[in-house]
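Checklist before submission:
- one chain only
- standard amino acids only
- sequence pasted in full

Submission:
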Amino acid sequence: MKYFICFIVLGTLLTAQSQNLSDKAQIEQVLNHYIDGFYKGDTSALKKALKPRLYKFGYLKNKETGNYEYYAKMNYNDALDFVQKMKDEGRSRDENEIREVEVLDISNHIATGKVTAVWGVDYMTLSKDNDQWKIEQVIWEGPYEESFTQKPTTYYLIRHAEKDLSDMSNKNPHLSETGKQRAQNWAKILKNIPFDAIYSTNYHRTLETAEPIAKALNLDITLYSPNDLKLKPFMRETNGQTVLIVGHSNTTPTLSNALIKEMKYKQIPETTYGNLYIVNLNKTGANATLLSLE
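Returned file contents:
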């Protein structure tokens, strides 16, 4: 009897969890319909997202004063007319770079969500009728500011290990025996870091430094060129990740500085191979730490 009761309790918990996941997925779909409506001028998508009793208003940042000022209200019909006008005027867009939905809280009949889009940030309340979630109210601010979508991200940056200097005319030397040992040591030092990605320049010395780490973590190495690296797309691609970047005595501190938007680090001395730069980004800012592991 005891086991039967436990089974019923467990089944109830799993059912509740499944329903919650279903609600979350449905709300995320509604929030995406909302974005599609305003991005693409899609009134059918907007109707799937909004309650007819919608009340929406916002605050627009004054470019001259920097203050946020109340900026109009919008009801259901206003919203439909607005997106239709956008489409008619050719102002619709297929935007994916600035597009994020987040379910903040779910109760029995009401929920809250957040949308980050090209126009700014929207917070909204939703309610559920006939097992369908739709948006009741929206308050927003704009224009979009990049800090709102910066997820916690950590970059580990190292220089390649010691290279073979026996042929000074060789522009792409392999690692020396000392360098190979250092590469193995880096793999031991970093073995417990949950890297999502490993980046390396396309040289023997950087790839051979990254390979033991990549092998230990069963990760591929992504090639990058410091001269051609477009920082904003790279940061968007790696947003929310933990990333190792293997570079050179000049590119490693330069990239660290670019990530934190501060000229903090100088070029690495030619004889120094044990610098580890740790850059942390989140929506409130950035910080960097330099460790010397010689």
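Reviewer check: The radius of gyration is 26 Å.
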